[in-house]
């Protein structure tokens, strides 16, 4: 048993320490957003945020996460109360099949946390590790720009940044 | 421009050379004194080493060059790895501006496109050859030896002519350079004259009649255009290659350029075939995949005529031959195979667990190189006394190259803290390197983390396309 | 966490009382109208003519739209709901949509070929319009007023005197259980409130908040996780496998071995992966595959025996050529490359098998799985749940078969199988390699006088129907043979899709060389043969335009009679700023291409600007401007999304992608060895101009962009470099070699 802090809550997890975080999130904590894409750190669909940084959960053993804060897309907001990045992706209709989108959003969120006003080139460079096969890239870029604007103009009292507990 | 002008100067300063080459690694005070002496010497030598300006010409038309000459120049430029230092990511080809860090500050590479204002468009061939031979710009000022004319001086007239033809037929790019950021006294260009008096040897590459033509071709390329020693030979306090430590390993961009001589730490010795395969394809099953600055080199070599790559391999294999260094245990194939077995039963040690989940999923799935990750028991990075290359790889991983087959490795800088990184590295060293633990590992990890961002900003736009055909 | 909501007919019926008639599908299937019986019904109504196969109004007022098509990320769920909301006069949010489920929905075959809007969208539109007419008629009867005086709004019929009856109140008995008519009283497009408008997709909120959106996200009570160990190469035989050690691994429930089919089941997912690795290490295989030479595919393909047919012939001896051009183009095998490896959940309960799958065809896949399991199809239910985008026949059906075969071995427990990345890349059926040879002559006026086109290709569909199409069935001890491939019939075609030129040439001759032998496993990939045929035709049109000294856009217009096609071309050219005699800036090039998908679906023209790095050979799409005519537009943003995606995906195919293999094995097994486009290659902008055709039939658009995007890019590269590349992919190395040559 180990304790894993995910989306602000402590979870008691019964998994071998070498289990990649992805499987613990999906199988033990029953979260959906982080996706299995390759298991090799090549596609980014498993991206989550650990202590403010985008991390590939499929190659991150849970043993590395003691005392660290894990945030998944579920931890940012809900359909009823979406976080700025979620609102932005909805408003831009930035998905086709959407399988890659959670990973894209988490990497973009990590970028916006440390650089609230990224340039287009910075967004592109940041998203490089993440693959999309449907070709939704133009919309994803627009959504990240929109998220930056939403975060900038968001009323601090109504929008809580839950990714950094 | 006779071949003797600087050579003659150097002779008159013979004793100083001996003194300097012998003092590398001595205390900073001595170095400071020596530098002062050097500056004085340089000032005295200034008049003698001053070079006249060579008159500009109208930029020659690209079609005035023989296409066959241009083609030869293209292959030579690839051997010379010119694009790596002269093309910045996102910038124009050969338009320079790449920051080259040195212990004395940052030098920016030149625009070597035929742009009339900011490039070498108005340079006659004579000026180009002079720059290659003696490190002097067309207008007569001295060029910093970050431009490796101490090697290029050995290039033949014919090859210089081909290189000139190649560069003068590139697309002109109008791009001015940032100012160099150098500390005094190195910021004073006349100081370069002194450096040249000490270190610019223009004795050429002599044929060795006892060796094959291939070996001699390799020697010509390695010492000259390919300038392998620029990275793989350690430098002295004045930034010159140490003559008596040729290919003993050097530093470049926070990477360690491995020793290629008999002090190599490669677990399996290099031979000509392995070198050839590595330089040709960018990887070899016994030695892994070229990364860091070497990735650019093998990428360029992938377009070079086969016999030149083979010649370089033959010569370098000879350089690395001989008796292994005493501290170097060459593991037998059997022990390598043993280390290959899955890591079960390694206990709960943090490093082993991290390895099992983060590394073994690729490195132990039997996937062939270059896509499966090297058999870590054969990794020079793990066997090397300098852990920086391994740290760099683990921190930054290996990025995908746009649209090209090539190894991808995720970086772990954001998922592992320093303690975890040290645990993993120590485990790798003990399990696969079978070497004593690295000292000051935590400090080296911290330093590598801080330089990581800087090195990424200059990473190249073109890397090798591994050829995995059988 | 449960499965995505699936309406079970029985529970609905239980709550619905007598209002709902028994599900009409079975009867509908039994009573399919014969082809010569009266006028053809619109869209898929022809196959399932009862209105309540498509629209159902329950006792509680719930209105549900049923479609036999599936959501693959194209936005159909939203579009179908828009159509039904429009024609029924129901609030968009008040509708449910149920997609393909062999127990609930009509058999609409596969969701493929850009057919969904044409087939299902049309059926839903007419069913909804006719249902509304029936409801109005019922209200007229009750109000004792003429139907013409009544209005429908917000799921109710109202009379001028203020009386109002909701659909819930009106629907009774067999009201909607009637056969559709061939014509409907469709709404005037000018009055559309929902259709033709940018309605947000209904599936996106869950996808951007971590909701359960995919079959991969299913968690049924008692569910176990399985992984399959695939052979190392086609046809490999499992000679030895000591499973004892793996059986003892923690969490392992069972090892399933059936001939060459090998799988492991564990309580949790990661232990299943670990056990799979151990099992793979224990398995010994005898390999026998002999794959062709990857670098010599043109010769390999044209050297294989083929069934040749002339599929188009036109002759006008008065037109004769003066200048002749010949060229050959090729395309390698290419991967669907879904980001999420294929996945399925299956459960055997009381002799009935249920499979949740992201197949594109629940009915044909059911047939294959039932045959594999020797079960009657009625005992097998396939329910579509979304997966990662598939772009054709990827591993979805095979994963469904894997899950079913494993679930049979542990009755009662739901089994979730997900493929590993390497399995998806190595075992999916690829888009077939193709070769085309073209020859044409220009007359004295620079117009094309004769045209000859020949295409060599495998089939473009090895989809299930029979069990032999499924890997698990091929690998099990009582194995099923791969069925003999068949060419897909024209006018849609397979390898010859879009092989017949849309342009008018006085002399034309088109031959399809259908190659039955399949050295690699192949099947349908987005646009089928149209990708390569349009790439070839539209590249060659540019080559001919250059020979004629004509502007490429004008040259196309000069040979095209189709009015809508001409408008699309003109729109794209105008949007791009295309001008005759234009010169691109240094290192840049402009390209243009056009096609009407299958010569019967959506029209698409694309103009591109590329930038070439002359030293490295790197080509980058800078911008693309598309114009598309897909008939009546249901959701303009959804349509734009499809075209944008097609351009980006086709750019990746065209610049980078090749399945690689050695003598025995597939060697492109992940994203290192099968690189696809990443963000650094994404263009600065893509503009999509939509030409809406109110009241015109829906024209499928999901695949219309693939071919034009490829040719437009190739033409732009030729424009920038002065060199014509004819072999896909137009890789950096090929471009560099062409520049340096």
What do these coordinates show?
The complex is a heterotrimer of chains A (165), B (470) and C (741). Chain A is an alpha+beta fold and 165 residues long. Helix content of chain A is 33%, strand content 13%. Chain A is built from 5 helices and 5 strands, in the order ββαβββαααα. The two termini of chain A are 23 Å apart. Chain B is 44% helix and 4% strand. Chain B has a 3-stranded antiparallel beta sheet with strand order 1-2-3, with no helix packed on it. A two-stranded antiparallel ribbon of chain B has the order 4-5. A two-stranded antiparallel sheet of chain B has the order 6-7. In chain B, helix 3 packs across helix 9. The relative contact order of chain B is 0.10. Chain C is an alpha+beta fold and 741 residues long. Chain C has 3 domains: 3-206, Aldehyde oxidase/xanthine dehydrogenase, molybdopterin binding domain (Aldehyde Oxidoreductase, domain 4, 2-Layer Sandwich); 215-288 and 336-427, Aldehyde Oxidoreductase, domain 4 (2-Layer Sandwich), CATH 3.30.365.10; 527-741, Aldehyde oxidase/xanthine dehydrogenase, molybdopterin binding domain (Aldehyde Oxidoreductase, domain 4, 2-Layer Sandwich), CATH 3.30.365.10. Helix content of chain C is 29%, strand content 20%. In chain C, helix 3 (76-88) packs parallel to helix 4 and helix 10 runs parallel beside helix 11. The radius of gyration of chain C is 27 Å and the shape is globular.
Describe the protein's topology.
The complex is a heterotrimer of chains A (165), B (470) and C (741).
Chain A: E1 2-6, E2 9-13, H1 21-28, E3 47-50, E4 53-56, E5 69-71, H2 84-91, H3 101-114, H4 120-127, H5 137-153
Helix pairs in contact in A: 2-5, 3-5
Chain B: H1 5-12, H2 14-21, H3 28-49, H4 67-79, H5 82-86, E1 99-102, E2 105-108, H6 125-134, H7 149-152, H8 157-168, E3 181-182, H9 190-199, H10 213-223, H11 229-232, E4 250-252, E5 255-257, H12 272-281, E6 283-284, E7 288-289, H13 293-301, H14 306-320, H15 333-340, H16 350-363, H17 380-383, H18 388-396, H19 418-433, H20 441-457
Antiparallel strand pairs in B: 1-2, 2-3, 4-5, 6-7
Chain C: H1 9-16, H2 25-30, E1 55-57, E2 63-66, H3 76-88, E3 95-98, H4 116-143, E4 151-153, E5 156-158, E6 164-166, H5 167-170, H6 204-207, E7 224-229, E8 237-241, H7 244-247, E9 252-258, E10 261-266, H8 269-282, E11 283-286, H9 297-303, E12 307-314, E13 323-331, E14 343-349, E15 352-357, H10 362-373, E16 380-384, H11 396-409, E17 415-418, H12 421-427, E18 434-442, E19 448-457, H13 471-475, E20 507-514, H14 530-548, H15 552-558, H16 563-576, E21 588-596, E22 603-612, E23 619-629, H17 636-656, E24 685-690, H18 706-721, H19 732-740
Parallel strand pairs in C: 2-3, 7-17, 15-16, 19-20, 23-24
Antiparallel strand pairs in C: 1-2, 4-5, 5-6, 7-10, 8-11, 9-10, 12-20, 13-18, 14-15, 14-17, 18-19, 21-22, 22-23
Helix pairs in contact in C: 3-4, 10-11, 14-18, 17-18
